[in-house]
Please model this.
Amino acid sequence: MRYLFIILYFFLFQAYSHQFEKNNIIIKHPVLKIVSTSTKIGAGYFKIINNSEKEIYLVGVTSRIAKKQEVHEVIEENNVFKMRPLKKNLLIKPGTEIEFKPQSYHLMFFELNEIFKTDQMLKAKLNFNKDFFIPVEFKVVINSSNHDHH
Model:
């Protein structure tokens, strides 16, 4: 019986946590957070882990999720936090990780192409330098209580 619980635990953990890997670059748990089904924007969060020996640069994202996608950062100016598109590609050094989360780096999806459902999986590609990309699937999260993105 104990083995059944262990197997069930790992199955449920894997079902909740999804990741994508290519050339020692790992994308962990990409989610698209949407405040409500009537909202036309969403924010993409995930973690990039660079287990390779090379520097990589995140260039952008390609998808059919929305009409426009951008990589954003949050900066502080005069004690006010401001969201803005990155002006240059995002460097991820070998052996490091960057987490895309509220009030930090994140993806913005503007003019969502349809009404999405919770737990729906949406295909996209994270584009890096030198024509390198990683296909991922964003898991839709709607009306998240810890969504701090305005």
In short: The first strand starts at residue 19 and ends at 22. DSSP finds one helix and eleven strands in the chain. The CA atoms of residues 74 and 95 lie 24 Å apart.
